[in-house]
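Lab notebook, bench 4. Still working through the backlog of constructs that have no structural model yet. Next entry is a single chain of 587 residues. Request: give me the structure tokens for it.
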Amino acid sequence: MRSFLELRRLVKVEETLRAEVVIRQYGLLNPIDWDKDCEDELLRMNQLWNRLVEIEHAFREGSSALIMSDPEVEDIHRQLTSLYDTRSSLIAERKNLRRVNRRKVETLELDEHIQELSLKIADLRGGAASARKTAREKARERLRALEGKRRTSVKLARQESRLWWGNYNAVVKAYERGRQGALRNGGQMQFKRYDGTGRFVNQIQGGMTLAELFGATHSQLSVGNLPDGAWTHPSRGERRRLQRTNLTATVFVRSGERRTVTWPLVMHRPIPDDCLIKEVVVTRRKLGPSWRWQVTFTCTRTVDAQCDRKSRGRVVAVDVGWRRIPEGIRVATVVQNDGTQARFVTLPSDIVDGFALVETLQSRRDTMRNDIIAWLKSLKWSAAPEPLATQLLALQTETSVSAARVASLAIIWRDYQGWAPEEYHRLEKWRLGDKRLWLWELNQREKLIARRNDLYRRLASDIVKNADTIILNRLEIAKMSRLISPRGQENPLPAAARRYRTIVAPSYFMKWVEIQAKKKGITITVHDTVNWACHACGVITKPLKPDDLLQTCVHCGATWDQDLNACHVMLNTFNRDKGIEAKSSAQ
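Model written out:
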């Protein structure tokens, strides 16, 4: 038996260690031995998801019926429905007035009426929330019974899916995660149409070492050995050639027989030797007419937490937003509390211009589509073959016709080229031109998003490096993207700002900061930034020109960059809260 001193020494060693997550993602080529049984597994995963969504909808309907059966809740919601309908009609009337007059018109009376209704709605919504909470307390036992029924239905659906345990666990986990997000944000889970997109998940119980991965000693997956110099050869071309190998992974196990598939793999980056592989996910998704494959290795390794002691007390404030500057678009401002120079996260101009090209290609496609639809509707289709006439009927009845629908008409027309051959050739010429622009647009967007994500990943890793606490400003993306607020007001953001938001995707940058911080075990604090608070004196004053980058405080005369000021305000608030905590603990 171990002595008390030995056990105490082991406990102290464990306290100095922490687990770090390491993720590696690689591209795959098309599989070598893919067959219909693999496709069926993906289809069953999609069917399980849709079944779980059905269960969730039934649960939400049942719980909502219980809550709405309360007389007080029912009365408040009846009033809210009436107010919502009235406000929507007034907003539509105001919008129609502005469209008809083709200019800015005075709608003061309508604005005041809409604002009055919005205030009433806000008051009633607060009362509705309180009434629903009371109703839930009354119906607690029945709601608990509904939850038990939901869990039983989920378990039964999982058992009846005929999926491998790794795959059905992944679907159920995604469902539970999406369900929690929908409940938290008031959303609704959606069904998914099967288009071939899916993933195969290998959960490695107990983990897998690199020796087992490259030695093909594990039953679930293996990677072919790489020759020497795959990551160290001086020639980049030679490194790329040496990094080519194969991944063999389990797709499913049925009736005791393991089904594996092999993909050509380019392992452009090594996995650290001290990593333990916990999960391997092979993903297939549709990109235009082709498939894109990739594999993600999720690993863990143990690191010495004592190596972080040098960075204790380092706080980093990150103000996330977007602002057009000559160099591109400023995405975030980073300020540390150690007095080092502030940094700016900037999306370069070439990426911004690349997204502008995507918009141009999309606009060209829309113009071409509208022209070809107008031309098709002008043709005399009385003598057309029945399959073509059916397609024309769809073009005439649908309010929005996609380019894919028009392209399908051209494909069907191939079998009836004897009828109106000149018109067919014109439509076929449009199809080929639209396909060329479509593939150009898809690949351009794909490359830009990959570049943007890689930039955010690297910059986020640099931001959290040696930090002890990260302070992020609270950015309400949903509120900023909404055209009409719940209070009936139009979105104050100009169209250009909303366009830049879609290019920058600030939520992705925040996600990468959170991921990198979680990997390093760093605390993240979300701060509700006070608008127009001066970091020097603390006085809040709204400026005359809020769009200007440089502002001057009317109270103390200090001039500051808006984004830098927001970071300093967050740091000051953090230090003040820390001081209050330290004082109270001392007492």
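Notes after review: The chain has four domains: 18-34+193-305, 42-185, 310-346+462-586, 356-443. The longest strand covers residues 290-304. Flag for follow-up if needed.
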